[in-house]
Amino acid sequence: MKRTRTLLAISAIVLIGLPAAALAFVKPLRVVAPSLMPGIVCAQPNICIDDASALGTAEQLYQTGYAKAESAVGPFRQAPRMVFCTTARCADSFGIGGRAAEAVGNFGTVVAPRGWTPFYVAHELIHHRQAEELGNLAVATKPRWLIEGMAYALSDDPRRLSEPFQQWRTRFDTWHAALGAGDLWEAAKAVR
By the 8 A CB rule, do 63 and 47 touch? Predict the structure, then answer.
């Protein structure tokens, strides 16, 4: 009896403690429950922000990026969650560092202050669709030219990218053009 209680207590601690530890130490995972972060308000189910006065701009970016990504890679299974940070402090609380934005699989995306552009938002939403179609593990293990190249190319990122990003976009464009009318996701699943 005492052993059973001990096992139940340990199980409860692990079930509660493990997710809490993950959120505490793996900052990008905080996008799973952004409203638990100080100063983050989820004004809509899929849009969270650290400064409510910028909500209108965030909503517009979300809608524009969503439409672009959906047009490029198909409809979303569920509306992605995005956290829009107006400050570096907010972005740092999600572990973004110097990046403009980061999609955490199909769990959500954090957009840092410099990522507030339609092409960055579309880029990250394309990563969300990749996770939906290919799986979170595949997005982490598929060739970078496919994963990043697709996001850069299909988001209509207007910049001349540094290497290896420009090479990845070019390789994806070549591969994508050769598909013709073929199914993007079936072809992407076959890439090793």
Answer: no
